[in-house]
Design brief:
Elements: E1 10-45, H1 52-61, H2 69-80, H3 88-98, H4 107-121, H5 132-143, H6 156-182, H7 190-209, H8 211-336, E2 340-375, H9 378-388, H10 391-394, H11 407-419, H12 427-434, H13 439-451, H14 457-467
Antiparallel strand pairs: 1-2
């Protein structure tokens, strides 16, 4: 029966490939400085008396301010970090960048250019044929050849005939005169002279009769000479054309080689320069990144040292001021106060933290997708219909649906199940019989196959037995 599908049966395969490259550089620098001082003074004193320790501290802090060792160390470190000095990494990146000065052609490009120049210098010259002069000579003979004319007086053959016929005529005339004179006793007479003259004239007439033949022969020679010149011109022309064709072939080959060499040189040069430019750009970017990072690190360190120095110096100077004020006050307290005992603790603390973060992230992503959809051919649809019947009747979903066996797998299983019992029977004939919807129609198909000689009567019984019908 004919295929009756409600939808297009397809097999679809597909996929995608995604490649992602991510490069991240980052860092963080944290500088923390903290400190504190705690001073506790406990003493007793009598009125009007100044303690020796108080006097010593008073004398100490009434002198001009002197930086502490920590402040001096920071000042020296700050001086040493005022001028930026490139790191080894920056110097190495710069050295590599210097290698990419002016573009220099690679050996491959030079060889391609040299090959092109050799071809340009070896172009086939102007065409010159060894048959040109011969052709010109023959051509001039043909076009300058005189028209045919015949002059028997200049014809050597005619002159030869004339000499022969004249001599023969004279001989005949003499013989005739001698014979006629013998009839009169050896004396000459008018008859003998007339008869001899007649013989002579006969030979001259024969000579004249041969002139047309000689004319024709001369004209034929003229024609033959013309034909021979034309044949020579044709042969020489053929050789000339052969040489010219060989020249054209050589010129065409040279032009093809030149075009290839030119294209190859340009391709090699463009590729070589693009690679050089890419390498140079990479080296430049690397040097710029290294220098920027290195300088930023130097600047951060310098700024941190400067901030640390200012904080330390401010703290140190303020500590000096506080101590000077304290010992001055303590001095006058001891001078003016009554008997007393005091204890004092001064505490100061400070902390500073500088944190700098940096990061650089570059990401490249390449995604390629592919898919392939194969639709059933009419023959495949007929095969499915023959194996499974109408899908709307049998409830078969021949599409690729989730959780179901694919159509091509069911097709393989169906063929195996339907034809497995056929043994050595022809599969195409099995399918042809199976297309008939009813047992009666299948019996008619088998009958037609036997009638048309497609199968024998004994084979018909085997086919009928396969489909469970009687024949």
């Amino acid at each position: 029966m004919a295929a009756n599908y409600q939808k297009t049966t397809q097999k679809t395969t597909g996929g995608s490939t995604t490649t992602t490259n991510t490069s991240t550089q980052g860092g963080s620098s944290t500088h923390t400085q903290s400190g504190g001082t705690s001073t506790t003074t406990s003493k007793s004193y009598a009125s009007g008396e100044v303690n020796a320790n108080t006097q010593a501290n008073l004398n100490r802090y009434n002198n001009p301010y002197q930086e502490s060792g920590a402040v001096s160390d920071l000042r020296n470190q700050l001086k040493q970090n005022q001028n930026y000095q490139q790191s080894d990494a920056v110097k190495d990146a710069y050295s590599q960048l210097q290698q990419y000065g002016q573009y220099q052609q690679s050996e491959t490009v030079k060889n391609a250019y040299e090959n092109l120049q050799n071809l340009l210098n070896n172009r086939p010259g102007e065409f010159h044929s060894s048959y040109k002069e011969q052709l010109d000579n023959i051509y001039n003979q043909i076009v300058n050849r005189e028209d045919f004319s015949y002059n028997m007086n200049t014809d050597a053959l005619y002159q030869q005939y004339k000499q022969q016929y004249t001599q023969a005529g004279k001989n005949a005339m003499k013989d005739t005169i001698a014979q006629a004179s013998a009839l009169t006793g050896g004396y000459g007479n008018s008859y003998a002279a007339t008869a001899g003259q007649q013989q002579y004239q006969n030979y001259l007439q024969e000579l004249n009769n041969i002139v047309p033949t000689l004319y024709n022969q001369a004209y034929q020679r003229y024609q033959d000479e013309g034909a021979n010149l034309l044949n020579q011109y044709s042969v020489a022309g053929t050789q000339y054309n052969n040489e010219y064709q060989q020249y054209r072939d050589a010129l065409s080959d040279w032009q093809a080689d030149r075009s290839f060499a030119q294209s190859n040189y340009q391709s090699e040069r463009d590729y070589d320069y693009d690679r050089f430019n890419a390498d140079r750009s990479y080296a430049y970017n690397r040097y710029n990144d290294e220098r920027t990072f290195d300088y930023n690190q130097f600047r951060d360190n310098r700024d941190f040292l400067s901030s640390q120095f200012q904080n330390e110096r401010t703290f140190d100077y303020q500590d000096y001021i506080n101590n000077r004020n304290y010992w001055n006050q303590e001095y006058w307290n001891e001078r003016n106060a009554a008997q007393t005992t005091e204890s004092r603790t001064d505490t100061s603390q400070w902390s500073q933290t500088d944190t700098r973060d940096w990061s650089n992230t570059s990401s490249t992503q390449n995604t390629s997708s592919w898919s392939n959809t194969e639709s059933l051919t009419p023959k495949e649809e007929d095969t499915l219909s023959a194996l499974f019947g109408n899908d709307s009747q049998n409830g078969l979903d021949l599409g690729e649906t989730e959780g179901k066996v694919p159509w091509y797998q069911r097709l393989a299983n169906g063929v195996k199940e339907k034809l497995g019992a056929a043994g050595g029977l022809d599969n195409d004939i099995v399918l042809q019989i199976d297309r008939a919807a009813s047992p009666g129609m299948r019996r008619n198909v088998i009958t037609d196959l036997v009638r048309n000689g497609k199968i024998s009567a004994s084979d018909a019984a085997d086919y009928a037995n396969l489909f469970g019908i009687s024949y």
